[in-house]
Amino acid sequence: MNRIKRLDESILVCVYYGLNGERLIRRGHKLATLLDCPLYILTVDSKPIDNFDAEKSGYIERWTQLADELQVEKFIICDNEKRPIQKVVADVAKKYGITQIIVGQSAQSRWEEITKGSFLNVLLKEVPFADFHIVAVKRPIEEEEYGTFEKGVRAYVIRDEENYKIVFTCPKVEYLEGIFFKEIGTDFDNGIFKFSYENKMNEVAIKEGFVSNPHLIHSILSPIH
Known about the structure:
The protein is of the alpha/beta class.
């Protein structure tokens, strides 16, 4: 039987696209577990969700899976949002009785609507009733991992005789869908292919359009054939 969570505390994690999102969510979950209280996740975008590119859609998909995995109270997606982000955060915080908010240290440069001043200072004025937790973003790691790759694009891996290759239009045969990050400065399709399988993010290396180590892909696609 599920325990009834405390209602005197409630945590909101604000995430934006990038590697730090999952780290923030897990930090929020750890704190919510310690306090035995509800956890909410919020992301805001000025574009409609139907217009998100492959990279953004990939993050939304991963965060949705993570929210389910961690039994988050609610994953709130405010798309097609024209209001300033601090107003959205304030409204969500009031609606759900939020007492603690977790944001990334570099949020003021990522959340494009905040153009002047500190994002935290703006939020403090809008949400004076909540405590804030600022989680440092490990930019060097992010740059090291993705700095040599182009922006991710939606891609598909399909069987090609005994190998597996990457294509960029939805195939009519069985496929594995994910996001391809191409190495900068190469004329070939070299890079990494990231995909979700069994509620986990996985990645395989791509060399000249083919999966370098196909064992994982084979175990997923081979039962279909």
